[in-house]
Each structure stands twice: as C-alpha cells, then as structure tokens.
Amino acid sequence: MRKHFGKLVVGILALSMTAALLTGCSSKKKDSSKWVIGTNAEFPPFEYISKADGVIDNYAGIDMELIKLIAEDNDKTVTINNMEFDSLIISLNNKQVDACIAGMTVTDERKEEVDFSTPYYVATQVMIVNEGSDIEKATDMKDKTIAVVQGYTGETVVKELGYEYEAFKKGTEAIEELKNKKCDVVVIDSATAAAYLNENKGLAIVEDKDAFSSEEYAIAVKKGDKETLDAINKSIEKFKEDGTIDKLAEKYAEAGSTAE
Fold first, then answer.
1. Which residue, among 57, 47, 62, 109, has the nearest Cα to 78 in the 3D structure?
2. Does the pLDDT of residue 181 top 50, yes or no?
3. Which of 19, 157, 174, 239 could form a disulfide with 168 if both were Cys (CB 3.0 to 4.6 A apart)?
4. Nearest alpha-carbon partner for 73 in 190, 233, 217
5. pLDDT of residue 250
6. β-bridge pairing 77-82 and 42-43
7. How far is it, in rounded angstroms, from Cα 34 to Cα 26?
8. How is residue 140 annotated by DSSP?
9. What is the DSSP pairing of strand 185-189 with strand 121-130?
10. Strands 114-116 and 59-60
11. Strand 146-149 and strand 185-189: pairing?
12. How far, in Å, CA of 107 to CA of 156, rounded?
C-alpha cells in the first residue's frame, strides 16, 4: 500500500507542478496596452533618428508621428524596434513586432506575406544627381553607375529596367557615394529625395513620370491579425479625413530631416 500511495503522491505533485508552470506561462501574456512597431529609421522624412525632434524616444518623421497618433487613438503605447528594411516582414511574421511602418510600398509580392492597412501616402520614384548631370530621364541611366537602397522600391525599379546597380544598407550611404562622385545617380522615393536635398547642396532631383509610376505606402501587420488591422485602419481613415496626415507631410517636408 505504501508503494502505491507513494506513487500517487508523486503523481499529484507532478500534476501540481505542471499546473503551476502552465499558470506561470499564461501569466506572461503579451501586454495588450502596448504595440511594438518595426521600422527602418533611415528614410527621412518618414523615419529617422533625431535627438532634436524625436516623437517616440529619438525617432522622428511622418511615420513615427503617425503611428504614435494611431496608438494613442487606440489607447496604446508604442515601442520602436529599429532594424534593416529587409528584416521587417520577417520580424512581423515571427511575432517580434505587432506592425511595421517604414514607408513600405504595397506590392502583390508583399501581400502574400502580410496584410496591409489602408494606404496613407502616395509617392513616386525619382533620380538624385549632382548638379550639371546629363541624366534627364530614366533611360539616361544606361551605362551609368547607379546606387539604390537595399529592399527599397528604387532597387526594384532599377532591376526591372535591366540596369546594373549597387545597393546600400542606408540612404545616407548612397547619397555620400553620389556626393563623392563614386556613382552618377541615386534612385529613391520622392519625399526622401526632397529631404536629402534640403541637407545636401549641389544635388538635384530628376523626375520621369513615364518611367516611374506612383506607389502607395501602408502599415503592415501579420496575416490574419484582423484586430490590429481594423484598429489601425479606423485611425488612418480618421486622420486622412481630418487632414492630420496632410499636415504631417507638410510639417516634415518643410523641416527636412534633422537627424543626428
């Protein structure tokens, strides 16, 4: 009898320990009052690091101020996870972040991996050149040294044109390459190009609407995360209707990037 009783006690203790472990795990549920947001803070005026005008810690820009407003509109607080652009969707699908806002263009390829919010901004690609350049349209880039930012739409556009290029991790690196005459042109989003020109003399923007079509920026969430998507969409619609997003675009277009 003692042997059986001893086994019973051991069994009960084992069950109790398992229950305690499960209870401990369940008590570590994600804080529903917080959003962890993924970004690539190398894309002024949408997101950049600045001690001067940070809106979420040292992060500033159209996207940073917008996501802060969206979070507040949903009674959330925000933590920023800054990473390389190519890592954003991976981190989203690994549940490391709740959403990603990074001047991310809506594409059919990305739609297969994530769900996108209502678009909040329309942009196009442009070419940044040194003043006096003979590049006047996209076809003039043939046989030129082209710089792009890895993972950005500019890389896709240049690739589709069939031109060779060098991809950089950061837009600032590509711009420095151009200023130092190590490349002839940088292909990047229009608003970001304008921000770089505000801070770098001797550069010019070349547009080619026939070659570069418009694109829409949206916030990405994990596929099937309807709760987060609905909350974000409701706020985006609100801020589009009341002019908040337009005001943010104007504010940062005038200020440029004050990244430090």
1. 57
2. yes
3. 174
4. 233
5. 87
6. unpaired
7. 18
8. G
9. antiparallel
10. unpaired
11. parallel
12. 11
Closest CA to 102 of 55, 64, 68, 76: 64
Dist. CA 194–CA 204, nearest whole Å: 9
Residue with tokens 């920026």, as numbered in its chain: 217
**Which pLDDT value is given to residue 254?**
65
The residue to which tokens 């950061």 are assigned: 170
The pTM of this model reads: 0.76
28: left (phi over 0), alpha (psi -120 to 50) or beta: alpha
pLDDT digits (tens, 9 = 90+) for 141-175: 999 999 999 999 999 999 999 999 999 999 999 99
The residue-averaged pLDDT of 33-42 equals 96
Cβ partners under 8 Å of residue 234, min gap 6: 73
Query: Do the beta carbons of residue 43 and residue 64 sit within 8 Å?
Result: no
Which amino acid is residue 128, in one-letter code?
Answer: I
Contacts 24+ apart (CB under 8 A), 135-138: 135/184, 135/185, 135/206, 136/206, 137/206, 137/208, 137/210, 137/211, 138/208, 138/210, 138/211, 138/212
CB atoms closer than 10 angstroms to residue 169? 15
Residue 101 · residue 58 · CB < 8 Å: no
Q: Are 168 and 84 in contact (CB under 8 A)?
A: no
Q: How far apart are CA 98 and CA 232, in angstroms?
A: 11
Q: Record the tokens describing residue 236, joined without a space.
A: 């985006």
